[in-house]
Structures are given as structure tokens and as C-alpha cells.
Amino acid sequence: MSTRADIDAFFDEATNTISYLVADPATHRAAVIDPVLDYDHRSGKASSRSADAMLSAAAQRGLHIEWILETHAHADHLSAAP
Q1: Do strands 17-23 and 6-12 pair parallel, antiparallel, or not at all (unpaired)?
Q2: Which of 23, 29, 36, 75 is in Cβ range 3.0-4.6 Å of 6 for a Cys bridge?
Q3: Domain-embedded: residue 1
Q4: Are 10 and 46 in contact, with CB atoms under 8 Å apart?
Q5: How many domains are there within the chain?
Q6: pTM for this one?
Q7: Is residue 48 part of a domain?
Q8: SS3 sequence, the chain?
Q9: 81 in a domain, yes or no?
Q10: pLDDT digits (tens, 9 = 90+) for 29-73
């Protein structure tokens, strides 16, 4: 029985943050860890560009995201968990 997980890292250059997409290749169940909500300080606008990239990667692989995990309070970025 294999217990291998597929792990993809997504680097957000603006905040120097890494978010992860972790998937069970057997069941296609997945978790997103520490998703970034993009925020432009100059305009005051937020976007989900970084989170959308993770969702797109999950969709392309046929993954079903079942969990969104925040590992700690984030002072360096806003969470895209919602």
C-alpha cells in the first residue's frame, strides 16, 4: 500500500510566501495549505490570482479540494481561504 502524496508548491513573489497543494493520487482528494490573497497596497484592491492558479492546477489534475489549512497567523499576506 502506497502512502505517497503529490505536493506542489506555489511561490508568491510579492510576499515571499509559498502555498501548497497536497493531493492523494489514489483518491484525488486534496488540501490547500496557506493560500495567498493578492493585495495591492497602492490601489487597495485584492485579487485571487494566486489562489486561482492553485484551483486551476487542481482542476487540471481532477482533484477535489476538501481542506484548506492555515498553519499559522500570517503577518506577511492575507489569506485566500474564504
Answers
A1: antiparallel
A2: 23
A3: no
A4: no
A5: 1
A6: 0.82
A7: yes
A8: CCCCCEEEEEEECCCCEEEEEEECCCCCEEEEECCEEEEECCCCEEECHHHHHHHHHHHHCCCEEEEEECCCCCCCCEECCC
A9: no
A10: 999 999 988 887 789 888 889 999 999 999 999 999 999 998 876
d(CA 56, CA 36): 15
The rounded distance, in Å, linking the Cα atoms of 57 and 11 is 14
State the pairing for strand pair 29-33/64-69: parallel
Q: Is residue 36 within 8 Å of residue 78, measured between CB atoms?
A: yes
Q: Which amino acid is at 14?
A: A
Query: Domain residues for 27?
Result: 6-75
Identity of the amino acid at 13: E
